[in-house]
Structures are given as structure tokens and as C-alpha cells.
């Protein structure tokens, strides 16, 4: 068992040694991983660190506001906020293949980064919140044959940019990152927040990403989260959301026939995301989520609950 206090101490020393007097740009997403990287780097090198937060339009409801508040008000770390919503959604228009979506998002991230570097640089380093499972699943240590899903936060920047990559969490599992974050004073509500994938709702919207499906996914996921919290279940599960695809089913709204979307609720328990088990939520809780989704989310007529574990399924449908 690795002691996290000594991990922090030795990592801060390593960062100072590696970085020296050079400047570091950190990509932050509002998740635990990148926030912890930012807190760790800030503690090690102070203002030599600049953080950038890119809103790709596929975040959880109100997440962009929460992230800006977290950095500026709660952690007192300078933040460059970039709203690239239109740019990302434009590039994703018409794209249905899950790996293509990831690739496009990865490439757009790189493009936006290049702009940020040009406008705010020079920087010599890029800090990333890559974790041990990302390293393994992206096949970095096993070669391309081991790729399950390409995680956009590993690699992908143009060589000419000449940014060295620093990944202070690359040997940690998620539960260890939480411990490190707590020790660094990252606020509790963020610590308790479920992990969220870099490509965001792109991996929870099956098929093409449209404004309508994005709205449904955000709203229905918010209901799933709120109901879990109200029932005291939120902290017991690893991830929870509502996914939406192109499948439709007939519903009735008053006297009207509505051909609406089928929503899939996915709630899983896990320790490190390498394996996961679907949560045996009480029927009454699933029922409450279901009736709120069909009542409150326009265009949603049916709700299903995903009962596949990982393996053979994965946590995200895309
Ligand atoms: P899967 O769906 O592969 O997900 O079982 C395992 C864990 O990884 C998250 N995930 C990602 N995280 N970039 C990320 O940063 C990605 O491209 C990505 N894809 C999946 C997922 O939410 C789960 O926690």
C-alpha cells in the first residue's frame, strides 16, 4: 500500500526537478484527475503553471460554471476559460462511429491547445491527468493490439509544438487519486463527484451527436444524479448517467401519441473502472428516475436500466 503523503512529497520534488524554471500548461476538465494534477502542480511550481479549461459542449449540466467557480473562487488558481462548443459540435456533425468521435474530439482538443499555447505561451510543458488504467487500456505499454477504446487524454499533440508531457498521476488508480486530492485540499463536493470521461457526453450519446440528444442526455443524467443523491446512493456508486441513442418507442402524452427517445439509465459500481458491476438499485428509486425522466425531459418516452457488467460490456456505451 502506497502512502499518499509521501507520494505527494516525492512527486512535488520530482516536478520541481523536472520543470525547473520552465512554464507548464495544464488541461483541466473539472474532473478529479485534472483538478488533482492542477493542485499538485500549483503546489510545486505556483505561477509557473497555467490552467486551461475547454468547454466542448458535451459537459454535464452547468458544469462549465461550476469549474470556473471551483478554480477561481475555491482553489485560487488562475484559469483560461475557452468556450469551443460550436467548433466541436460542428466537427462532430454527422459522425456516428464511436472511435471516430473520440478521434475528432482528441484532434479538436489539440487544435484548441495549439491556439492557447500561441496566445498565452511560450510553454515548455503540458501537464495531463493520465491514470494507470488509461495507460494500460490505451495500449501504451502493450502496443496497438491492446486498444479497447482510445482515450483522448493520452498523447495526440503535434510534435512541432515541442511540449514535453508531464503526467504526475500515471502510476495511480482512481481511489489513490481521491486520497491525494483530499490531502491537497480539493473541495469535498468535487471529490465525491463521479468520474467523467474526457470526451464527455460524446460517449453517452449513441450515434450522431445532435443538439436534441445532447439536451436529453444532460437533463436525464441530471435527474439520475439528483435522485441518487436524494436516496443516499450517489456516494455508493462509481458512475451514473442516462444515455440516449436513436432508438425510439411510442408513448402517450395526454391523448397524444408521441414517438420519443428511449433513455438508458446506467449505474455501476467499481473500484478502478477496469471491471464494473451494475448497481442493484431499489426498484422504487429506478421508478422515480423513470417517471421524472418521462415527465420532465421533453422527447423521452421510455426508460430502460442497463444490467450488463464489465466485462463483457464497458462502462460507457460508446
Ligand atoms: P469504459 O467505457 O472503457 O470506461 O469501461 C472505463 C472508464 O473510463 C472512462 N472513459 C474515459 N475517460 N477519456 C477518459 O478520460 C475517454 O476517452 C474515456 N472513455 C471512457 C469511463 O467513464 C469509465 O470511468
Automatic annotation (TrEMBL):
Pathway assigned in UniProt: Purine metabolism; GMP biosynthesis; GMP from XMP (L-Gln route): step 1/1
GMPS ATP-PPase domain ranges (all copies): 2-193
EC class of the enzyme, as a word: ligase
GO molecular function, one term: ATP binding
EC number(s) reported in the record: 6.3.5.2
Function of the molecule: Catalyzes the synthesis of GMP from XMP.
Name the record gives this protein: GMP synthase [glutamine-hydrolyzing]
Full-sequence portion shown in this chain: 194 to 511 of 511
